[in-house]
Design brief:
Layout (H helix, E strand, L loop, with lengths): L1 H10 L7 E7 L2 E2 L6 E2 L18 H4 L11 E2 L5 E7 L18 E8 L9 E10 L1 E2 L4 E2 H7 L3 E5 L7 E11 L9 E4 L1 E6 L15 E3 L8 H4 L18 E3 L21 E3 L2 E3 L8 H21 L6 H18 L33 E4 L5 E4 L6 H4 L29 E2 L11 E2 L8 E2 L5 E2 L2 H4 L14
Parallel strand pairs: 4-13, 15-18, 20-21
Antiparallel strand pairs: 1-2, 1-5, 3-13, 5-10, 6-7, 6-11, 7-14, 8-9, 11-12, 11-13, 16-17, 18-19, 22-23
Length: 461
C-alpha cells in the first residue's frame, strides 16, 4: 500500500516549474536523488523559492537537511546538474520556455556536511551564464536545448574537503511585476585531490546566502519584454576561480561514502543482504528483514522517485514465496539492478563564458583582472595618435634565425591558453578556440579577431 500511495504522491507534482534532481560526475549518473538535497513535499517540490531573504535561498526547501551520501568529485571534473519539470521524470521537459533568464553555480566548503548550516557565509560563484547577444539566447534557453542538463567544470585550485554545489536558475518572466523566480537545490560533494592549502576567498567574491542579492537589483527587476538585454547584469558576486599549479595528496573520504555492503540503491538509501536461513523460522525472519528495509526505502524515497524500492519489494515477495513453498535454505541471491531514469540527452560540455568580467586567483596570493573582452580606444580611454608621414625606406633583410623549439602543449584545465601557459584549447571543455586575450572558448570573440592559431582553432563566421 505504501508504494502505491508514494507513487501517486510523486505523480501529483506540478509540471509548471523545475527542480534539480539528478547529479552526474564526468558523465556518470550518480542516481536520481543521490547526494542531492531536495524538498520532501512532492506537490510543491518544483516551485520557486520564496522569500529572497529566507534560509531556503541557500539549498531550497528542506535544503538544511543533509542526505546520507556525499559524491566524490575530483578537481577538474565536469559536474552536471539535471533539471526536470516533473521531478520523478513521469513527463519529459526541463522548464517552461517562457522562464528565460540567467544561471549560476555556487560552492560552499563545509567542515561537517551533517552539522554545518547551508545558509550563511562562505558561498562563492564558480560559473555563470546570462544573455548571449550573438545568439539571442538566455542561459535557460541553452539549458532547454540541452534537455535540462547544465554542466560546469570544477576548478582545480579548490582544497580537498566537503562542499555544497548549488546550481541556480533565475526566471525573469515575472520580474517586471516584482516576482523574480529562483530555482535551486544543492549536491553534496567531496573533492579528494585538491592542493594542500586553506580556502581563502577574497571578500569581493565571498557572500552569504541569504543576503547575497537585494530585491531592487536591476537583474531582478529586469523587464524581459522590453527588448534585447544588451547590458543585463547577472545578480550575485563576480565569478571566482581559484587556480593552483599543483594538487595535494589524494584524501580519503571519511563520511558519506556509499557502503560496500550496498546491494541496491534508491536515492540515498541502500539495501543490505538479508540474513541467511535454514529452517522455517529463520526463513520468515529473512523475509521480515527484507520488508523492514523496504519500508525504510519508501520512507526515504525522494521526490525523484522510488524505482529502486519497487525492485527491492519484488525481491521480498520472491523470498516470501520460497518460504511458502518450503524452500527454507536461503535467501536466494539478489540479482536486481539500480533503476536509472533515462538520461534526456547527451551530457553537454560546460557552456557560458566564466571568464568574462571575472578575476582569477593566480595561486600565489595575487588576484589579477581577467576580462576576456575586446576593447576599443574609446572604451579604454586611450586617444588614437594622429597619423604621421614617414619616409619610405628599403627594408634591410635580417639574417635567418632558427625557429625555437616549441614546448609540448597540454590541454587547458583552467580556461587559459597561449605561450605563457603552455596550454592549448583544442580538446578542452571550455571550447577549442584561443582568444587573443589567452582564453579558451567557442564564441566569435574567441575564434576570430586575433585568435591564436598555435594554441587553438580559428574560424571564419
Amino acid at each position: 500500500m505504501k508504494s502505491v500511495i508514494t507513487i501517486l504522491g510523486l505523480a501529483s507534482v506540478s509540471s509548471a516549474h523545475t527542480l534539480f534532481t539528478t547529479f552526474f560526475v564526468d558523465g556518470e549518473n550518480q542516481g536520481d536523488g543521490t547526494c542531492v538535497r531536495m524538498p520532501k513535499d512532492g506537490a510543491t517540490s518544483n516551485a520557486p523559492i520564496y522569500p529572497l531573504t529566507g534560509d531556503d535561498m541557500a539549498c531550497g526547501r528542506d535544503g538544511e537537511v543533509p542526505v546520507p551520501f556525499i559524491c566524490p568529485a575530483a578537481g577538474g571534473s565536469t559536474l552536471t546538474f539535471e533539471f526536470r519539470e516533473s521531478p520523478n521524470a513521469a513527463k519529459p521537459g526541463s522548464i517552461d520556455e517562457s522562464h528565460q533568464g540567467p544561471c549560476s553555480v555556487y560552492l560552499k566548503k563545509v567542515d561537517d556536511m551533517f552539522s554545518d548550516s547551508a545558509a550563511g557565509d562562505g558561498w562563492f560563484k564558480i560559473w555563470e551564464d546570462g544573455y548571449d547577444a550573438d545568439t539571442g539566447k538566455w542561459c535557460v534557453d541553452t539549458l532547454i536545448e540541452n534537455n535540462g542538463l547544465l554542466s560546469v567544470n570544477l576548478p582545480t585550485g579548490l582544497p580537498s574537503g566537503y562542499y555544497l554545489a548549488r546550481p541556480e536558475l533565475l526566471a525573469l518572466h515575472q520580474a517586471y511585476r516584482g516576482d523574480p523566480q529562483f530555482y535551486q537545490s544543492c549536491a553534496q560533494i567531496f573533492i579528494e585531490n585538491g592542493p594542500e592549502t586553506e580556502l581563502a576567498i577574497p571578500s569581493e567574491y565571498a557572500v552569504s546566502i541569504p543576503g547575497y542579492i537585494e530585491a531592487d537589483h536591476p537583474g531582478l527587476t529586469f523587464n524581459l519584454y522590453s527588448g534585447p538585454p544588451t547590458d543585463y547584469k547577472i545578480p550575485g558576486p563576480p565569478v571566482y576561480i581559484p587556480v593552483s599549479s599543483s594538487s595535494g595528496k589524494t584524501q580519503i573520504q571519511s563520511e558519506g561514502a556509499i557502503p560496500d555492503s550496498c546491494i541496491l540503491k534508491n536515492g540515498n538509501w541502500c539495501a543490505k543482504p538479508v540474513p541467511t536461513s535454514s529452517d522455517v523460522e529463520s526463513c520468515w525472519d529473512s523475509v521480515d528483514d527484507c520488508w523492514t528495509q523496504s519500508e525504510q526505502c519508501w520512507d526515504s524515497a525522494p521526490v525523484s522517485g522510488g524505482a529502486g524500492c519497487e525492485v527491492w519489494a519484488d525481491y521480498c515477495t520472491s523470498l516470501g514465496a520460497a518460504c511458502k513453498a518450503g524452500d527454507y535454505n536461503g535467501p536466494a541471491k539478489f540479482t536486481g539492478k539500480e533503476v536509472f531514469a533515462p538520461v534526456p540527452g547527451a551530457i553537454p560540455d560546460s557552456y557560458g563564458n566564466v571568464f568574462e568580467k571575472t578575476k582569477v586567483n593566480t595561486g600565489n596570493g595575487k588576484v589579477v583582472e581577467d576580462e576576456d573582452k575586446e576593447t576599443t580606444p574609446s572604451e579604454t580611454g586611450d586617444v588614437e595618435e594622429p597619423a604621421v608621414s614617414e619616409p619610405v625606406l628599403e627594408p634591410v633583410p635580417e639574417p635567418e634565425q632558427p625557429e625555437p623549439e616549441q614546448p609540448e602543449l597540454v590541454v587547458s584545465k583552467d580556461g587559459r591558453c597561449g605561450g605563457e601557459t603552455g596550454q592549448t584549447c583544442v580538446g578542452s571543455s571550455f571550447g577549442d578556440c584561443c582568444s587573443k586575450k589567452g582564453r579558451c572558448g567557442r564564441k566569435t570573440r574567441h575564434c576570430t579577431c586575433g585568435c591564436q592559431s598555435d594554441f587553438g582553432e580559428c574560424r571564419q563566421y
